[in-house]
Structure formats: C-alpha cells, structure tokens
Design a protein that fits this description.
This protein is an alpha/beta fold. The protein contains five helices and four strands. A four-stranded parallel sheet has the order 2-1-3-4, sandwiched between helices. Helix 1 packs parallel to helix 4, helix 2 packs across helix 3 and helix 4 packs antiparallel against helix 5.
C-alpha cells in the first residue's frame, strides 16, 4: 500500500512551509507534502494554478488531501481541482484546522491509512482541546 499525500494551501508561503516542516518532522519524511502559498509575486494570497501544480507534484494512486488556512483559499483550491486532468486521482479538500489538521493527517497517512481515514483524522482535530477546561 502507498501513502496519501498532502497539499498545504496558505495565503502565506512562510506559514505553509512552517506547517510542512512540522508535519514532516512528525512523520520522519514518510509522507509527500507540497505547499502552495502566497502569490507568484511574493504577496499574500492564493493561486489556483500553483495549487494545481502542488497537487500534481505529490499525487499518486492513494490520493491527495488538501488543507487550507483561510476560507478564501477554498475557492482557489476548488478552481485548482477543476483544472486537474482526467485521471489525476482522488483529491479531497479538507475543512480541518490548518496546523493541527495537517499534523494529524500526516501522521495518519504515515501509518498507511486510506484517503478517507486521513481526511477523517484531520477533521477530528477540530475536537481537540488545547487547554484543560
């Protein structure tokens, strides 16, 4: 069995790279993680073409989970997914929290869970408590 890949979409390239670094360290590099952050000219924002390229970079038979930082990145990601060629494999857009979801998704992918399992684990991050009530 292969491994589900991740794409991290952020308005900030630095933020996406930082989250990738954290997730990669947690999984000892076992999961392919691509980032699409910022615009081509270095400003804050998202770019559907860059997102599609990141998906293509890491896609495989086991699918790709895309995590986004802010709501407006959803539209760019949806446009990117529509740009993908036929047969590009399964791609899911996650509504999980960006940082926690990415780390949990990467760990889940590293133990060879399928795309649905990785997506469910990432969404479970919404229920995590950061402090004791």
């Amino acid at each position: 069995m292969g491994t589900v890949s991740l794409v991290l979409v952020s308005h900030s390239r630095q933020l996406a790279e930082g989250v990738r670094e954290l997730a990669a360290q947690m999984t000892q590099g076992k999961v392919k993680i691509a980032v699409a952050g910022g615009t081509a000219d270095g400003r804050l924002g998202t770019d559907a073409t860059a997102i599609a390229g990141a998906i293509q970079e890491v896609r495989g038979a086991d699918g790709v989970l895309v995590l986004v930082d802010l709501g407006s990145a959803v539209l760019s990601t949806q446009m990117a997914i529509e740009q993908l060629p036929e047969g590009a494999g399964r791609v899911l857009l996650s509504n999980a929290p960006f940082v926690e979801g990415a780390v949990i998704a990467a760990v889940e992918a590293s133990i060879d869970s399928d795309l649905d399992g990785v997506a469910a684990a990432a969404l479970g991050a919404r229920e995590m408590e950061k402090v004791n009530p």
